[in-house]
Design goal:
InterPro entries: CbiG_hydrolase, CbiG_N, CobE/GbiG_C, CobE/GbiG_C_sf, GbiG_N_sf. It holds the Pfam family CbiG_C. By secondary structure, the protein is of the alpha/beta class. It is built from nine helices and eleven strands. It has two domains: 117 residues, Rossmann fold (3-Layer(aba) Sandwich); 135 residues, CobE/GbiG C-terminal domain (Nucleotidyltransferase, domain 5), CATH 3.30.420. Helix 5 packs across helix 6. 40% of the residues are buried. The N terminus is likely disordered.
Length: 262
Amino acid sequence: MSPASRQGIVIVALTEPGKALGQQLQNQLLGAELWYRPKPFSDRVQQAFSEGRRLIFICATGIVIRTLAPVLTDKKQDPPVLVMDEQGRHVIALLSGHEGGANDWAAELAARIGAKPVITSARRYQQPGYTIGMGCERNCPLEALESLLFDCLALAGLELSQIDSLHSIDIKADEVGLIRLADKLGLSYRTWDKAALSQVEDQLSTRSEYVFKTVGVYGVAESAALVGAQQLRTDPAEPVELVLNKQKNPQATCAIARAYRG
């Protein structure tokens, strides 16, 4: 899930404990609004849903189903809807689980707050795994790499504990800063040749002619993250995807990809 897809989140709470939980979520979710006992309830919630806003309800599932039933259209078009209990113990992917991304969203949110995801779609649930891809100038300082990586985690709404590994291009196999970064954070570090990286070039968010002329691929960070994610998936037919497009500082680039594993 890219940062852009996290915009337009509405958290709906109906009780004081729910409001307290909602405030915690609001502080962690970029662009989220908290609606406490919105009035008129049905009209406001239905309008937000019809506008395609992502919804988190902290209340009984029955209330949500009865409220949204009149405006449900199609699972391929409806926005994702999550439901949580007041104690924040469970995150239920109620609507648009697979097609709309509610399953993934529920898993990510549950991991963030220490809750249990409850996936209600028929598809067998798989745990998402995340990989970091990085490129950098030669002899890039560890501090510049570490700062960028943690900035990217914050943008993607992820914790370091959710990251499986760090990846780059093979000419960076001896890059001291990247090696030290992986060691410091407890991540495995793996590099890939341009033949492997070029296989995912159709998934890149941007293509840099300069980078291609320099190293033979159109982007190091995104390509490396995607190829690294391919190693995590349980089913080779499952797609891998970027959850954070390339970010950069003056000395390095970083991207995050996701795959599914059992």
